[in-house]
Specification:
Elements lengths: L11 E11 L3 H10 L7 E4 L15 E2 L12 H12 L7 E3 L3 E4 L3 H15 L2 E3 L3 E8 L2 E9 L2 E12 L5 H5 L4 E3 L13 E4 L3 H10 L20 E4 L1 H9 L9 E5 L6 E3 L12 H25 L7 E5 L9 E3 L7 H5 L7 E5 L3 E4 L6 E4 L5 E4 L11 E3 L8 H7 L2 H21 L8 H10 L7
Helix pairs in contact: 1-3, 1-10, 10-11
The chain binds flavin-adenine dinucleotide.
Length: 455
C-alpha cells in the first residue's frame, strides 16, 4: 500500500479526567455510571455517534436477565437501568424463554433518553461525535487517548481508561494482544435489524400454536407464543420451501422479535458473512449487502409467514449490528468449558445465564450449547495481560470465540461494565493499578449496589 509520512505535531489536551470510558453501548453507559457513583471522580464518556446506547438502539431485546433455572442473575446497575425504562413504559417484563433464558423488550429510542438521564444524574461528562483513534502509552501504562472530531485531533488524559468500544479499539491501539473469531478467523456475521409494522400478531401466534409441525420453533414450546412478548427461532421448513421456490433467505431460522407496540416485529434475519467491522471497506460492503437482503427477507415473510401479508417496513436500524470482532487477551481468557461446567471463580465480578450461541461464520445456521445453570465471570477477563491503566468491558473482554458467543448479550455486557467502572473507582481511591485492585472490595461494592455474584 502507498504510504505518506504524517508530520509530527503538538496536540491540544482537551481534558484530564480520572476515568475515561470509550464507547457508550450497554457496557459503556453502565461503566461510566459505576465509575462516577460516589461523585468523587471526574468521569468522561466518549462516543462516536450522536447518541448513547450502542446496540441497545438497534431493535434488539436484552437477553438473559434470568438464568437457565429462572432466577434473576443480572441485577445491580443493569436492573436499575431497566427500572428507569419501566418507569417510562419503555421496557417489558423479563419474560422467561426456553431458548434465550429470558427476553426484555426495550424501546430503542427511549434508551437514548434514559442514558442521558443516567449520565446527568451521575455527573458524567459526555462527549459525542468523537472517534478514538490512538492511545497515549508511557512505560507500559495507558495515559489517555487521541480523539478525532470536527475540532481536529486532540488528547484526553485519564488515570484509567475503560475500553467499551465493542471492537477493542483502545486496547488494540495500545498494543494489547487481540484475537478475532474462530481458529480460522471466522467471525459471527453481522445483521442489519429492521422493524415491520402492520403485523397481524394473532394470526402469527395461531399459526405457531396450532400448527407446530409446519411452524416449528426449535427448542421452544408453543405455550411461549400464546401471549406476551416473544422471539421466534424456527420456521426452518418455511425457509427451505421459500428457498426452493427461488426466494433468497440468508438464514436457516426465522428470527422475529415482538416490539412494544401490538403490531410491531423487529426482524433479525439479514446476515452478511465475512464482514470485519474493523475494516471500513468490509463494513461498507456489509451495509450494502444487508440492505439488499432486507427486501428479500421481507418478500419471504410476506409470502410464507402468517400475519405479514399486509405488513410494511417501518424503519431499518441506524447501523448494521456487529456480533463479533476483536477480543483482548486478558489476565484470564474465559472458555466455553468454563461456562458449560459453571466453573467457580474467587474473583467473580458478574454472573451470566446465556448459552453459547454461535451464528456460523459461513452459511445461515447457528450452534447452541445450553448450560444447566448460570455461570460466574472472573475479574481477569477485564484486565489486559500486559498493560496497565486499562480495563476492557463488553463484547471485547477476554473470551475465546465460543465463550464470547455467550457473554456477548447485553445484560452480561452491562454487568461487565458495572464491574469495570467499580474497579476503576476503587483502584483510584486506593492508589493502586487496576490490575492490582482488591477484588474483594470490588465484589463488596457490587453487592452493595444489589448485584448478583453467586459467591
Ligand atoms: C444482530 C445482533 C443481534 C444480537 N442479538 C442480541 C439480543 O437479542 N439480545 C442481546 O442481549 N444481545 C444481542 N446481541 C449482542 C449485543 O448486542 C452486543 O454484543 C452488545 O451490544 C455489546 O455491547 P458493548 O457495549 O460491548 O458494545 P456496543 O453495543 O457495540 O457499543 C459500543 C459503543 O462504542 C462506540 N464506539 C466504538 N468504537 C468507538 C471509537 N473508536 N470511538 C468512540 N466510540 C466508539 C460505538 O459507537 C458504540 O456506541 C446481538 C448483536 C447483534 C449484532
Amino acid at each position: 500500500m502507498k504510504t505518506i509520512k504524517e508530520q509530527a505535531r503538538e496536540l491540544n489536551v482537551r481534558a484530564e479526567v480520572d476515568v475515561l470510558v470509550v464507547g457508550a453501548g450497554p457496557a459503556g453507559i453502565i461503566a461510566a455510571e459505576a465509575a462516577a457513583k460516589d461523585k468523587s471522580l471526574k468521569v468522561m464518556l466518549l462516543e462516536q455517534r450522536g447518541y448513547m446506547g450502542g446496540n441497545l438502539t438497534i431493535g434488539l431485546p436484552i437477553l438473559s436477565f434470568l438464568g437457565p433455572k429462572g432466577n434473576q442473575v443480572v441485577k445491580g446497575a443493569a436492573q436499575k437501568f431497566i427500572d428507569r425504562m419501566w418507569a417510562k413504559g419503555a421496557a417489558s417484563e423479563h419474560k422467561p424463554c426456553k431458548n434465550h433464558m429470558s427476553l426484555t423488550i426495550i424501546d430503542p429510542d427511549q434508551v437514548k433518553t434514559v442514558a442521558w438521564e443516567m449520565m446527568d444524574d451521575a455527573g458524567v461528562e459526555v462527549l459525542l461525535y468523537v472517534f478514538v483513534v490512538d492511545t497515549i502509552v508511557e512505560n507500559g501504562k495507558v495515559k489517555g487517548v487521541v480523539i478525532e472530531s470536527k475540532a481536529g485531533r486532540e488528547v484526553i488524559l485519564a488515570k484509567t481508561v475503560i475500553d467499551c468500544s465493542g471492537d477493542g479499539d483502545v486496547a488494540f491501539r495500545a498494543g494489547v494482544e487481540c484475537n478475532k473469531g474462530d481458529e480460522n478467523g471466522g467471525m459471527q456475521p453481522p445483521t442489519l435489524m429492521f422493524l415491520m409494522r402492520g403485523v397481524e400478531m394473532q394470526r402469527l401466534r395461531d399459526a405457531i400454536c396450532n400448527e407446530p409441525e409446519k411452524y416449528d420453533m426449535d427448542v421452544m414450546p408453543t405455550s411461549q407464543f400464546r401471549e406476551g412478548k416473544f422471539i421466534t427461532v424456527g420456521l426452518r421448513g418455511r425457509i427451505l420451501e421459500a428457498q426452493q421456490k427461488g426466494y433468497k433467505v440468508p438464514v436457516a431460522r426465522t428470527i422475529l422479535i415482538t416490539g412494544l407496540g401490538e403490531d410491531e416485529i423487529w426482524v433479525n434475519m439479514t446476515r452478511v458473512s465475512g464482514v470485519d467491522s474493523t475494516d471500513p471497506v468490509s463494513y461498507t460492503k456489509g451495509e450494502h449487502d444487508a440492505r439488499v437482503q432486507m427486501y428479500e427477507v421481507m418478500a419471504y415473510l410476506k409470502d410464507f409467514v402468517p400475519g405479514f401479508e399486509s405488513a410494511w417496513l417501518e424503519r431499518s436500524a441506524a447501523f448494521m449490528g456487529i456480533r463479533e470482532s476483536r477480543v483482548i487477551v486478558g489476565k484470564y481468557v474465559m472458555t466455553a468449558q468454563d461456562i458449560l461446567e459453571q466453573k467457580r471463580f474467587d474473583d467473580a465480578i458478574a454472573v451470566a445465564g446465556y448459552p453459547v450461541d454461535i451464528h456460523h461464520a459461513k452459511g445461515g445456521d447457528c450452534t447452541m450449547l445450553f448450560c444447566e445453570d448460570a455461570y460466574q465471570i472472573p475479574y481477569g477477563v477485564l484486565v489486559p495481560e500486559k498493560i496497565e491503566g486499562l480495563l476492557v468491558a463488553g463484547r471485547c473482554s477476554a473470551m475465546d470465540h465460543e465463550a464470547m458467543a455467550a457473554t456477548r448479550v447485553m445484560s452480561t455486557c452491562m454487568a461487565l461494565g458495572e464491574a469495570a467502572g467499580t474497579a476503576a473507582r476503587i483502584a483510584i481511591a486506593d492508589g493502586v493499578e487496576v490490575s492490582a485492585v482488591d477484588v474483594t472490595k470490588v465484589q463488596q461494592a457490587l453487592l452493595a449496589n444489589d448485584a448478583y455474584l453467586n459467591l
